[in-house]
Fold Peptide methionine sulfoxide reductase MsrA.
Amino acid sequence: MFARPSRMPTSEEALPGRKDPIPTAEFHFISGLPLDAPVPPGMEEAIFGMGCFWGVERKFWRTEGVWLTMVGYAAGITPNPTYKETCTGLTGHNEVVRVIYDPEVVSYEALLKVFWEGHDPTQGNRQGNDVGTQYRSGIYTFTPAQAEAAKASRALYGEKLAAAGYGPITTEILPAPTFYFAEDYHQQYLAKNPDGYCGIGGTGVSCPIGLPEARA
């Protein structure tokens, strides 16, 4: 339905977007928590892009220690983009999931394990049949410690993938950009539509992040 360039747009090519945020859901469909809730004291946040954000969000809301999840667009150029605009490839944005979690229950390294094992990070601007820059693999970090952990995990998992016959990891690791909420119907989509399609899939290669041998 939409053109899907295989490269990021320049600022001159990018769609203009809009000043005001697009409407979205007020509350999380499963927990009932407000989606714009501030990060509670003691909790932390993370942003991941790993293909279709419907399935990615489900992976994280099912993870013990995750308090709140929401889907949106990030790491591009266009302010307050819509889904249709993002699908053109002319916003530069990635489909991402913002995760608020309790580090006393689930570590950032454990979230990285969910990330690496939940998709194929060697595919570039695609995941399976979903093709476009909005499906690229990305980790967007909020602290130096997150950035260090993400880069270390990329190196370690890259070795595991290479041993299994996969190519180089294409995952971008960047400081957390502005997060723009996706539309209401995208939030917790697979809870509302259990039979919905989502093209993400892992490699079957286990990620040792967070396990004792990974720290040795």
Notes: Residues 144-163 form the longest helix (20 residues). Residues 211-216 have pLDDT under 50 and may be disordered. The chain has one domain: 44-215. Helices lie at 53-61, 83-87, 108-117, 144-163, 189-192, 212-215.
